[in-house]
Protein 1
Amino acid sequence: MSISDLFDSGFKKRNEDHFAAIVRVAMSDGIINEAEKAFLDRLARNLNISDLEYKQILKDYQSHPINPPLFYDRRLERLYDLARMVWADHIEGDNQVKMLRKFCIGLGFKPENVEYITDKALKLVHQEVDLDTFIEEMKTMNQ
């Protein structure tokens, strides 16, 4: 196996784990509604998740670990995706917000900041900001 094969398989696994984490948020209320399904479909395409992998992840999403990215911007990108999924049905239930807070910890954010980070992330996705604006605004919270 070549180094590029190892890199590709590791990258693929991280994408699958990230996708599974988002499926977990979508399933926190027991169903995937139309808005969530549309978001998952787009995300699967963007992450190069095949139809077969998509179905397998939907069936066994809880077996995938949360793998936090090393770089802060990548963590914010994942938070953006997760927050958008929580907001996809325009009703954040207690279970979904709790799950998002757990994912924030899993992504490597400090536990003492998680409630603030979660609230700010949800406010930004309510405003329908793009990814670049989200990252910029999340970074300014530390100043």
Protein 2
Amino acid sequence: MVIWLIDDDETFNFLSEKIVKASGYFEKVTVFLEPEKALGEITKKIKKPEELPDLILLDIMMPRMNGFQFLEKFSAIKKNSLTKVAMLTSSLEETDKKRAFEFDYVFDFIAKPFTRAKLEDVVRNFHSTKK
């Protein structure tokens, strides 16, 4: 499996990448500090869905483009992509959670801080959505 981490916090990404790599669940981990760059990669790879990530962990609160803006743009280009998204955020707002689940490919909403146990929950939930 391939996972992308999209968050503007370098420290968070550093620690999350270590957790993800140590888990052994993923063959490849790619980190993006800017959601715009992740969308650029998706746009480049959209004709080869097998090159897209299986899973994206996405923050909500980012400058220039927030997580919801990313989801809206992703919705417009995702076509046959099977990519699933888990929101991983410091937002505990129920309205944010409700809004996230309006996107059919968002399957989880996790509060930071990120831990190995939370990653295991994400992976378990990810696999249950594939059935």
Protein 3
Amino acid sequence: MIRAYEEKDLDAVIAIANRAWAPINAAYRALYGEELFQRIFPNAETRAGVNLQRDMEAHPGQTIVCASSGRVIAFCNYWMEEDKKVGVVGYNAVDPECGLKGIGQEMYAWVLSEFRRKGMLYARVLTGLDEGHARARRAYERAGFNISHGSVTYYKKL
């Protein structure tokens, strides 16, 4: 069941975010090596939850959760750039331990419908090109996101 986020959901969504970002952190750690990884992500285990909470505070009332048997199993934060008519899908994840299929697609459909209802003309989501984000890329493509461009970040040891 998709519903609006409530303050009582905070601990659950932060925990889901941190669990869901574990494979992304592992991919970054393998790619960057331990020294650079620790410099970029000194609090890797909690960074997703911290960033999610920051986005939720910046865009109050624009987070949904999916609950099953009274337990939050997924979340999606979003906002609208009204001047550009672009809806933005922010931090989102399904609890890796949930075991249910299709939850992400249900949330994206809900958010995309909300964007249309509010007059947005496009929707945007940002994700990485690394292996840790592969599942997210496939999910966004299944949800109909079909215009993309790549980006590369370079690092050099000094």
